[in-house]
Amino acid sequence: MSRKSKLITIIITAVLLILTISFVGILVNSKKTADLEILVAPASSEIKIGNSTYKNGTHAFIPGTYPVEIKKDGFDTYTGEITIKEGGKNRLYHYLNQSDGSLTWYLNHKDDSMILGTIGEYEAEIKAKEYVKKDPILKVTPYYDEKNNHFQIVAEEKDNAIKVTANLNTCTDDLKTKYTTEVKTYLENQGINPANYDITYKGLCDN
Length: 207
Prior knowledge:
Blueprint: H1 3-30, E1 34-41, E2 46-49, E3 52-54, E4 57-61, E5 64-71, E6 78-84, E7 90-95, H2 104-108, H3 110-134, E8 143-144, E9 151-158, E10 161-168, H4 173-189, E11 199-203
């Protein structure tokens, strides 16, 4: 084979290799149909998901469950896993605790302190959603009878129990009985059995 032929063969082989690598890259990226928003404090932490490392931001993933490791010198290492689903919002929000139990890093690093605050707000939002999920009555209250202005219903969790109060907009016994029935009817229409709750009915003149 002449020198020229060898050169052509090398060029063709190189082009085919590049095309193959590009095709594989396109194929892999085409499967990354899920986005994951990462927000970690400190921002300089090493964030490992699967076999790759990431920084704060939004990244494309192939849907699935991945092992997670977040670490930084001077902080407790976090290990866990995350399931990334196609569509919807996938988030990895996490902050590391200092190994000595102090908050000096966050007090001295304003950007990380702000990230810590954002993560705290997100965790509070998640807890609030879980709180609502605990009991179905919390999904349909508070409720105000805007049409007739007969009653308001308030439900809250207190001491690991659900406390329900129905405020009846009347002082007369006859109307209190009528409005009490309306409260029960409203709850039943929402799929709630009033008999499952200790409901306090209060008229306007009740102490």
